[in-house]
Amino acid sequence: MNKLIYIFPGQASQYVGMGRELHERSERVRAYYNQASDLLGDDLARISVEGPAEKLKQTIFTQPAILIHSLGLLEILGRQLPPHKYAAGHSLGEYVALVSSGSLTPEDAITSVCTRAKLMEKACVENPGTMAAILALADEKLDAVCEQASAKGIVTRANINSSLQVAISGEHQAVEEACRLAKEAGAKRALMLEVGGAFHSPLMASATEGMAECLDGIAIKDADPPVVANVTARPVTAAAEIRKLLVQQITAPVRWRDTMAFFASEGASAVVEIGPGKVLTGLAKREMKAIPAFNIDTLTDAEILSEAVPGQEGK
Length: 315
Hints:
The protein has 315 residues and is an alpha/beta fold.
């Protein structure tokens, strides 16, 4: 039985030059970029391919650029990709996972993520914040650190990426204080991150109403195969539940560690990351050592997939 998993990256996987060959290869992919450019008021293909890096790092461009890179791979590879048992995406990557499972059209995913990126960028300006990576600190100790640091402002767990790495998010002084306390509590490292805002925290709450309005105008179908949601780390298929979770995702932690644990418990045969970079592939290799993990960033990467993941006939 096929137990292949597809995963799709989120913010921080971008790089200047991404999507170049996809844009050159496919008229449909060029249409994706044109749609996003019209929605954003700037040339997303040029920003993706030529940069500059500082502009590509802006939330309003990063999110759709990563989305379309992943969508472009799905479009061009098409039936070359073996069928999968589950899909998941890290933060904005969840929208591509939903496309791979038939819940969203690529065009509706682009509309949704461009809206999401603009709303989150606006929230970053209205409620400034930041994030930090905490390495090798037990959950209960990190929770106590965040509770103590909250005396200086909002701070919470945001991206629970692996058993060793958790990102916290919140107001600047509170995150800085949490880093200091985390080191005192025994964290291996506590690093402030160069990000545009306090993602996946209550400081993003102002983006949720607009996101709900956007999704209300989008045709969302049941997902087949299921998508493992960021908010719950459990599989979801029902369109109504998907719609609700996509709104909650903006302020809720990304439970990626639990998502990988779910895949392992299901006996995943292999995990394939589709999109720019290999951040999620690295996490999978560390968290699920017995399960092969591969990444497809370019069309050349895809050529090894049939050899790397044999025996994937049918669902």
